[in-house]
Amino acid sequence: EFAVSLCLVDPVNGKRYLFEATPDFREQLEMADKVSNASNYPYDGIFLTHAHIGHYTGLLHMSFEAMSSKNTSVYAMPRMQKYLRNNGPWSQLVTYGNINLRDLHQGSPVDLAGIKVTPILVPHRDEFSETVGYKIASDGKVALFIPDVDKWSKLDTNIADMVAEVDYALL
After folding, report:
1. Distance between CA atoms of 27 and 20, rounded to whole angstroms?
2. What is the pTM (predicted TM-score) of this model?
3. Can you tell me the mean pLDDT for 106-118?
């Protein structure tokens, strides 16, 4: 019914994170509001996978003309950040302080108060940015989130081996 996204809720620290800012952003935010709160509304952070329309255009809802969010952390790889900084209307989100771009690097985890999020490069059409999936680790459990890939055979690692190493796989 809706484009693929993932909401990570951290009830211990009262935070929530969105993976993929899709065109269904408003409906997904409404669902998130029913089960959680954010210390920096609408999300404490948003993790983007790549620059295809179904994966980042929901950021428009954070604009000055819409909810006018304040310094929402948007985690993105280098080419994705460059794309957002150098192309309107996305660049206006940065200029107005609606979003605060945060660096991601292949294989380097981001620590969100005990939740580790690690970007993993995956093969996909990379016209505007690189494409990543994520390993999300907390409390001894690991989830793998890869919402978009061209062919599993192009992946550097066997997908079956990757799935065998995690507790949850969302592919």
Report:
1. 13
2. 0.95
3. 96
